[in-house]
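input
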Amino acid sequence: MKTFLTYLDEYASYDALGTYATGGASTGPGMGQYVPVADLNAQSEKQLKKSDLDQVEKYADRIFASLGIDVEFTRHFLDRVNDKRNVKQITPSELTRLFKQSYKKYGKKIAQLGPDAEAVINDMKTDINMPFVLNLKGGELELVAKTVMRKKNFQTSGPKMSFEQFINEVETEVQKVKADHKKDKEQNKIKRDRELDRARTRDTARKNLTTRPEVNKEN
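output
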């Protein structure tokens, strides 16, 4: 019986605390010598870039256009949106929600404020606050978002437009519609049952008439 010898060149860098060189060794790398593919200490939410704000601005422009309002962000806005004082990173989706809900509840009111007016849009669900000023530029109102911050119970001397209540109103309205729909179904069922009962009564009466024995006239 023939035996075959296996030759394996070990490539190890013992000068580098026993780490294994490219190609590996027969025993493989030791504990702690693997390089992770991703940074496990990275933030769950990435900081916003100017391109991210540009997309939010386009969305805000589109929905406020019907009111003749153009939306602009200041340079300070980008710095403050990524500020550590926010504790939790402000995201594009949160800013989109901020503009969407403020337009639904306060859009017409904002348009009526006129040039040089200042106010704060406040999302009570996310605690995001956005102070803004209205400027008149080229005959069009310009809503300039001066800054933004995530802060609970944000205090301001000017008007504060909060819309968490608006969300609750929508949810209440949806529940009311569902309740009305359920009530209508129940009432329709009662109505159908009554009609079926009347139909059965009429049918039973007809059957009784056809099966009733004839009366002997001679008697």
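quick obs: Helices lie at 50-64, 75-81, 92-113, 164-211.
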